[in-house]
Write a structure and sequence with these properties.
Helix content is 44%, strand content 18%. By secondary structure, the chain is α/β, with parallel strands linked by helices. It folds into 2 domains: 4-208, Spore Coat Polysaccharide Biosynthesis Protein SpsA, Chain A, CATH 3.90.550; 221-292. Strands 1, 2, 3, 4, 5, 6, 7, 8 and 9 form a 9-stranded mixed beta sheet that branches. Strand 1, helix 1 and strand 2 form a beta-alpha-beta unit.
Length: 323
Amino acid sequence: MPQISVIVPVYKCEEYIEACVDSILNQTFSDFEIILVDDGSPDNSGKLCDEISEKHNNITVIHQKNQGQATARNNGVKVSRGEWLHFVDCDDLINPYLLEALYNAVTKNNVSLAMCSAIQEEKIPEDFFSHKEVKFNTLQMTEDNILNLCKNEKYYYWVVWGKLIHKSIYEKYPLTEGRIYEDNAIVCKWLHEAKTVAITDAQLYFYYINTTGTTKKAFTEKQLDVLWAFKEQIDFFYSVDFKKMTEHLCSYYFEISANMYYRAKTENGESFIPFIKKCEKEIKSLYAPYIKLDAQKQLYYYERTNKPMFYITRLKKKLGLLK
């Protein structure tokens, strides 16, 4: 039985999938399996997965009708045999030492989750595949430390990739199917459940910035799932009495909702504005004491949501932006 199952949801990535899989196969750690989940891809991605798997006995391919990344990842976990899980997006790459480093981190420190930093670029750095000095620190998942992780972009608090997670945690908190931004809703629960995690600044994961990807494409109704995802976080941290996290996320929620409002207004999505306002109203009704926007954040919100100029002018004067 392999120690690690590497799960790759595959959709419309025929020009990237071979390089992605090669980066996994070239790991210094050898006790792993790869599960490629073809999510009904309309291009040649599924066929390429089959061709790749025929050459390697540690690769399994699943073909499913298009149901989204969450379902693809969940289905990959269902057939996985490893005690540990690692997720890679089909257009991304991992450093040759990633699995070994993360596995050593969880076993030597007796923790159930380890994470590394990442590079987010359009082009692969020339030295990305070179050996990297990797040092891990352990961090208890207290409220203050989770809050710092949330604010620290190095460790990508929001995402499933760049992490090695014990399967039992994933099975307790699987991804919600039928949604996008599904990892934004769940990873915080993994961190809290892990109690202690191992962390390194080493950039062992390459995240390809794709301007046509899920989070970059033109505004659609599905993009509003981000409001659902952050409400899930707020609900969770409120339920475990993490007041600082609840306050921080409530503030961030209105930054996100303002962006959704602006995009709906400027990208022919005016019909979605009532839904955005409904979501905001729900957060206000449930978490009013935790919503604390400073003047700078209020100004950002007012400008993005076309509030009357009187409010905007008053805030600008308060901030010293107008005389």
